[in-house]
């Protein structure tokens, strides 16, 4: 019942808050190991969150883990998504979607529990779409918000955070990522979401 009301009962990444206030935080994160999948949402009937099931099967959320040990891996939060580069379409391709002949990929990432210090410590995936990688230390400008992380809401949060960071003299070093901490069945007012923009 707690998850319906937004209780986060899984491991979340440790971080240090370097600056707080003005509607955002600057956070430093230590190195971590992540499982990620990059995909074209059209492979999942247009679902931008289609990679979730691939990663959930890797860690064993729905039964036997799809990794070589097989070893069940604890779920962590948040689930991180970022839009990737545009992929030029080759001809001839017949689709029902518009979009000017280009498609965007999405990368979804689960940070693995802290016990996995290096990529080789994590069980090897049996699904070749899942990649295990080491994330170095990271520094982000972060804004937290509740509700559903609809594209229009996220876009506004990104725009404001980017503007605030630039105003305050932070150098932005990449595109934003979206961090979502709750399962889909959590009531929207109780959901915790974050827009994170990497900074120097």
TrEMBL record:
Gene3D superfamilies: Regulatory factor, effector binding domain. InterPro entries: Reg_factor_effector_dom_sf, SOUL_heme-bd. Transmembrane segments: none annotated. It comes from the Eukaryota. Belongs to the HEBP family. This is SOUL heme-binding family protein. It comes from Brassica campestris. The lineage of its organism: Eukaryota, Viridiplantae, Streptophyta, Embryophyta, Tracheophyta.
